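User: two proteins, same treatment. go.

Assistant:
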Amino acid sequence: MSGLLQGRALVRRHEGLLAVDHVDIDALPGQVTAVIGPNGAGKTTLFDVLSGVLRPTEGVVLFDGTEITPLTPDERSRLGLVRTFQRSAVFPSLTVAENLWVGAENRLRQGALRSFLGLPDRGAARAAAIVEEVLGQLNLEALRDTPAASLPTGTLRLVELARALCTKPLALLLDEPASGLDDLEVDRLRDLLVGLAGRGLTILLVEHDMDFVVEVADVAYAMVAGTMLASGPPGEIVARADVRSLILGIAR
């Protein structure tokens, strides 16, 4: 298991604007790495480049030392690089368990073909086991048969995270995972991410909740106007005067 994700000299121009400006970033296995910054800093654009939603104008993306810059998000997912979004992207007509099953099927990638050929789906039992495991990890067992359309925003974010975990990723990119969660859900999410990193998963997240970042992350990158202002231990980064002024809006 590895999952080392790196960006080198990444540039992304959009309609004449430099959204990402020669950014270097490393997300290491066994660590939670956070990207912080004000709205418009380029954080989501950087995530789009790393996950394959956007191609960089310049620079390269590396996964376990291999360049993956030309690969699509689906191709990166097959390698173990999985991403969630700011807005929940679950299937509203499916139940929680069915949403997770989609992730597990994508991980195993054999059920649909075997069904088409009239063969027994040998991965069904494995997919079911993955779904049950992840339902338990995120305390979603009681909601297994609940349609996603009836769930509040915070719970939908947990369902999306659960579906991503069902793919058994090596690296997980989370765009504002704590947004919309109540205090209890935030505590559970923090413990879950720390536990996943402790088992070797690479976790890279964008987050506006600085308390959450300081509690969960091993490394923080502070991004402003498309560039990296600073990187290091989260407590030290958040305490810096320039970060507090430019990112947190607190006077020096």
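Protein 2:
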Amino acid sequence: MKKKAIQRGLLGFPIGISIGHIITIIISLFLGSGNYYPIPPELISAVGSEIGAVVIQVVLSGLFGASCAAASVIWEIEDWSIAKQTGIHFSIISMIMLPIAYFAHWIPRSLVGFLMYFGAFVTIFVVVWVIHYYIWRNKIKYINKGIEARK
């Protein structure tokens, strides 16, 4: 299990960087007025240089991707209920994502900003969870039908 988590984490690092880059493109398309904004201006100010801020954001995006990928092994622990898997996975991802988002200036540094970001995070988590739940439920129904047909 530990080896699988490490392997997934190594794969998740470049995936996290790629997703982070895609997000900056999407944000720039909607808010950039024709300009590309790779990083929040607050991060540039905090770091002191644009290249330094880009490097930090790339590393943080990679760490988040690696963490999410490594944490996915939780879904394969068959002895745990779906509620336990969900709770632990949500806790791990929250403890990783929220500090990264704060440090990278992806969220306003205020209580309202934190609550809005956390609300969006919870909403996205729930939507993804529900989609995966129905996908797997349908796969299991299909497998069970195949087993019944063979009896």
